Amino acid sequence: MRDGDTIVALSSGAVPSGVAVIRLSGPDVSNILNAIAGGVPKPRRLALRRIGSDTVLDRGLVAYFPAPHSFTGQDCAELQVHGSPAGVRAILRLCTSLGARLAEAGEFTRRAFENGKLDLVEIEGLGDLLDAETENQRRQAVARLEGGLTAQIDLWRDQLLDLRAEIEARLDFSDEGDVGDLPTSFAEDVAALHTDIARALDSVERGRVLREGLRVALAGAPNAGKSSLLNALAKSEIAIVTDEAGTTRDVREVPIDIGGQLVIFLDLAGLRETASKAEAEGVRRAQAEIERADLILWLVAPDVPDAVQQVPVETPLWRVATKSDLGVTLQDNGLTVSATSGAGMDELLRRLSAFATERTGKGEPMLVSRERDRAALAAAAQSLVTVMTVLGEPELAAESLRIASQALERLVGRIDAERVLDRLFSSFCIGK
């Protein structure tokens, strides 16, 4: 990627469509607009223009955003034209013939980062917003994109800077007799900051479930009704259902929005001993997904023997009696459902919604939700623990405070950002 280039891309998604948005960014934007749109419009005003040079390619709205007041911090422009595949291709060819080049995945957003318009956590929020499937995910992504986590990190950094200034001043002037001891409130301030960061660290798992979805494994013996229940939950014939045991041999993930929370149901192979290599691999994969699940629905049916229950003891498990339409009542089961008649489905959905709310919390969206968040906050919290144990050795305490600051700076991308940039921006679409 070369920041001095002018880049162009279709930014609005696949064509044909009603409208297509073509985005440009870089030093030659105004020259290109002069060549293809009859001049540069007034900044941040839409102007109806003919698009083309020797030949009119289309007619559309043109907007110009001069640097530094643009998404990327460079001169930018957007062409809102008809969503014709041939028309869009012709406009892109014309732009590249005038010196622009086609943008790479995420290159507009990367320029926004490099020009100080967004930091790493805000960019992750933008990526989450593009991927959001539920209202709760949208709210969480917007809060991160709008700088909610950045503001909190800046507050912690300011507190760390105050603590570092307090202790480093004494180190700098330690040879002068009038330098006193640290104030009595110093240890209390360190402990309070540690408590605050530790509280945020404890919320990472809730944020992860909200962002990635609650993973619910449908487990049990073959023919216990897993695929039928999945179809009933999805209200679609997604999974193949037969009376032949071992039909499901791979893991099928089906995302469903339940009360604004993304729930990912995992249709797994029935658990049993088998001589079939293909089915045995399905059982192995099913066991692996059970280990990763946030909740296990263990299905038992009146017409098949129950499977041997091998699940992590720390993972919540609900026993669900299926096929209640057969008229056989199973004992000691908290839920009874029928995928055929729909009996018990509303109660199952109600409990799942309540469980998801319990796991993700209520009120403000969780701002921390990624493994990067967890690693940075854990490093900062551990460094503060070290500070509290070495207050009698100011040099070590000062170094630990510096390490805590670096962990937070790394999270927002103020240091060591290059390590995560390529991976982060590769997940963005062309034109973003």
Give a written overview of the molecule.
The protein has 432 residues and is of the alpha/beta class. 44% of the residues lie in helices and 17% in strands. The protein contains 14 helices and twelve strands. The protein has helices at residues 29-36, 85-97, 107-114, 120-131, 135-145, 148-172, 185-202, 204-212, 226-234, 277-292, 345-360, 371-389, 394-412, 418-425, and strands at residues 7-10, 17-25, 47-52, 56-65, 76-83, 101-102, 214-220, 252-258, 261-267, 295-300, 317-321, 335-336. β1 (7-10) and β2 (17-25) form a beta hairpin. α4 runs antiparallel to α5 (135-145), α6 (148-172) runs antiparallel to α7 and α7 runs antiparallel to α12 (371-389). The chain starts with 6 loop residues before the first strand and ends in a 7-residue tail after the last helix. Mean pLDDT is 89; it is low at 242-246.
